[in-house]
Amino acid sequence: MTISLRLNESDTTLIKKYAEMKGVSVSDVIRQTVLERIEDEFDLNAYEAAMAEYRANPSTYSLDEVEKELGLR
């Protein structure tokens, strides 16, 4: 799939120089940056959900308790 992106000249120059510095293509820089941003948002949403669950039921378990529960000991 091809996606077009409109950038002003200074942004274009910055991205091209960054890609050159890293030894990768502009497409690789943009692809990796977008995917990292998406992953960061998924991680933040998972964290927020886990914290909400913890606040509703603040139970914690030791490593020993978890290993026993999972049959690892």
What's a quick, concise take on this entry?
The chain is mainly alpha-helical and 73 residues long. The chain has helices at 9-22, 26-56, 63-69. It contains three helices and no strands.
Description:
The protein has 73 residues and is mainly α. It has a domain at 27-73. The chain is 71% helix and 0% strand. The chain contains three helices and no strands. Helix 1 (9-22) crosses helix 2 (26-56).
Write the layout of secondary structure elements.
Elements: H1 9-22, H2 26-56, H3 63-69
Biggest β-sheet description = none
Average residue-wise pLDDT: 96
Indicate the proportion of strand residues: under 5%
How large is the radius of gyration? 22 Å
Number of strands: 0
Low-confidence spans: pLDDT under 50, at least 5 residues? none
> What general form does the structure show?
elongated
Please name the defining characteristics of this protein:
71% helix; 73 residues; elongated; mainly alpha
